[in-house]
Design goal:
By secondary structure, the chain is mostly helical. It has five helices and no strands. The longest helix is centred in the N-terminal third of the chain and has 12 residues, at 16-27.
Length: 65
């Protein structure tokens, strides 16, 4: 995980509206968990092309840019 994660999290709670959105998402997390089987089925069916890159010298910052 990026050590800058806290900066990204802070960005999404700068206003009252953003904080409310995050709170609603957090409070409704069970619905998210309940929908995992549907998402997994969708991803198994469609099998989107994906390139995963990992290595000793790879940094997250350029992956997120």
């Amino acid at each position: 995980m990026s050590p800058d994660g806290w900066k990204h999290d802070t960005y999404f709670v700068q206003t009252d509206k953003q904080r409310q959105i995050q709170l609603v998402l957090f409070q409704d997390y069970k619905t998210n968990l309940d929908s995992y089987p549907a998402w997994q089925s969708f991803l198994r069916e469609h099998k989107f092309p994906t390139l995963l890159v990992w290595g000793k010298k790879i940094r997250y910052s350029w992956l997120l840019a």
